[in-house]
Amino acid sequence: MNAASADQPALRRSKTDVVDAAMSVLAENGIAGLSMRRIADVLDVQVSALYWHFPNKQALLAAVSGRIATGTDASHLADSATALRESLLAHRDGAEVVSSSLALGLLELSARTQMVEAALAAGLSDAAAEVAADTLVHYVIGFTFHEQQRLHAAVVGAADPSVDLSPARIAVTGGDFEAGLAMVVSGIRSSAAAAR
Amino acid sequence: MNAASADQPALRRSKTDVVDAAMSVLAENGIAGLSMRRIADVLDVQVSALYWHFPNKQALLAAVSGRIATGTDASHLADSATALRESLLAHRDGAEVVSSSLALGLLELSARTQMVEAALAAGLSDAAAEVAADTLVHYVIGFTFHEQQRLHAAVVGAADPSVDLSPARIAVTGGDFEAGLAMVVSGIRSSAAAAR
DNA sequence: ACCTGAACACCGTTCAAGT
DNA sequence: ACCTGAACACCGTTCAAGT
């Protein structure tokens, strides 16, 4: 017989376990299916148990956001932006999840910190570097959010049929991101040149 | 006695009436409180009646989005962006409502069309003009979305206390938008110069 | 310290039936 | 053509109570 017998009190879950479960629900069901009940099911626990670990759903979502937007090290503006975009793309609805936590002030983006440093190194003033970082973050999240919602709409078939979902158009998206990014970065650089 | 006596069959509602009701619920309760039941209450109608006018909530939201992002005429990139931003700011949670309809391909932005034209006039190629317009739209919506969620968080008190909500910081936001906008526009212009 | 069980006050959507 | 009434399958959150 096993040391853990069948009538043992149920094993304790950590905050980490709860976030793990949330990540797997997100991967399988997307943000629309990321409910407290489904997370509880994965953990084989009552919904109310989750509220011992997190005060509410938004706090749990903030922890999930932290898992999605992992720290990266990049010293150039474009590299930080690309790294942020890749971390968002690596998880279903990543941009939307991160966007909500960010807007509520529940998440600090390491990519943003890197962008501020890169902007300072490029010669921007403190205030301009903050603005530049926010501008880049907004661009990356906005673009990726839009892209991920369209991908999901394509799968579900909920989108307007006039939306162009042809493979050629989808494939081109990566290039569009980089083209727009180049414009934003060049604008940031020229604002440094203007201040010099 | 009035021509419309009390036992008359209830008066018919138009699609316009439904959207009107949705607009007033949005103004009073925000997007989180914009439920089909509340809209039905305003119209003094059963929830199911709304489904005769709109196939689902997203379609109704798209109509609401059309009301928010009203057509404007501007011939410069920065003017179109500012006009779009102002239309979003004029309605509670305007950026979030428009963002979701846009991502699902259920809304055409006249501001975006104007931006494409302005970019072409500035000398961009067709493809670059599309990218430029999308970049600007992402910037405007991302910035305004973030700003409106923070304003709401400030009212509700749901935000992290470390978030700086001092009047000075809030007042400075308008300037930050324009500073970031100037960077993006300058980047777009320089991409035209590079292609020349 | 961590969880159960049950309840509260909601959701969006469907559908037969009425006028 | 437009709406009612009722139901279905969900939500997030709270709270007394258990171990």
Overview features:
homodimer; 196 residues; mainly alpha; Arc Repressor Mutant, subunit A; Tetracycline Repressor, domain 2; 2 domains; 70% helix; disordered N terminus; DNA-binding
Please provide a written account of the structure.
Two copies of one chain form a homodimer. Chain A is mostly helical and 196 residues long. In chain A, 70% of the residues lie in helices and 0% in strands. The longest helix of chain A has 31 residues, at 126-156. Mean pLDDT of chain A is 88; it is low at 1-7 and 165-170. Chain A binds chain B through residues 58, 99-100, 102-106, 127-128, 130-132, 134-135, 137-139, 141-143, 145-146, 149-150, 153, 158-160, 162-163, 176, 179-180, 182-188, 190-191, and chain B through 58, 99-100, 102-106, 127-128, 130-132, 134-135, 137-139, 141-143, 145-146, 149-150, 153, 158-160, 162-163, 176, 179-180, 182-188, 190-191.
